[in-house]
Amino acid sequence: MPIMKDLMRVIRWVGALLVLLAAIIAIAWAFGGVWFDAPFGAGNRIAAAVLATTFIVVLLFVRSFWRKLGIFVVLFAGVLISWLTLSPTNDSDWQPDVAQKAWADIQGDEVTLHNVRNCDYWTEETRTVRISQITGIDLAVDYWGSPWIAHPIASF
Fold first, then answer.
1. 116/102 Cα distance (integer angstroms)
2. Helix/strand/coil for 112
């Protein structure tokens, strides 16, 4: 039976380490979510610091595992739910070279594309093409694995 007790002790210790690792990852993600995406402007840094401090205080000073877990879940769920309600916008403070959306001016067979970025990002460009001379168009969407942000790319 002593072997079983030792085995259970090791399993509990490994489980506690895994829970601690998950808590650290959750704290880091929530900190980043508030730091970068909270709606408080310059106050995001303060809010992120308060959140991280709260997580750490709970981790160190709340004795009951279940109470500690409950507080963690509530704090993390609050950040996660608010982060999931964010929607993309074109009204952000973009760098000047990417602040303009592309648009087209169609005059009969001629299409003029304005604010074209050719993936080198050196200059903003305007290009004119004749629809009758286009033999094919490739359209790709690069979304980096996230459904919340994407770059449509057209090549012809």
1. 6
2. strand
Residues 67-102 pLDDT 10s: 988 998 999 999 999 999 988 777 777 777 677 888
| 114 close to 104: Cβ distance less than 8 angstroms | yes
CA distance linking residue 64 with residue 73, whole number of Å: 14
Beta strand extents in the chain (DSSP E only): 103-107, 110-116, 125-130, 138-142, 151-155
Residue where the block lists tokens 């993600």: 29
d(CA 21, CA 26): 9
In the β-sheet with 103-107, what is the strand arrangement from edge to edge? Answer: 103-107, 110-116, 125-130
Question: What are the residue ranges of helices labelled H in 38-113?
Answer: 44-61, 65-84
**Cα 110 from Cα 105, distance rounded (Å):** 8
Q: Which residue has the tokens 């709606």?
A: 39
What pTM does this model have?
A: 0.59
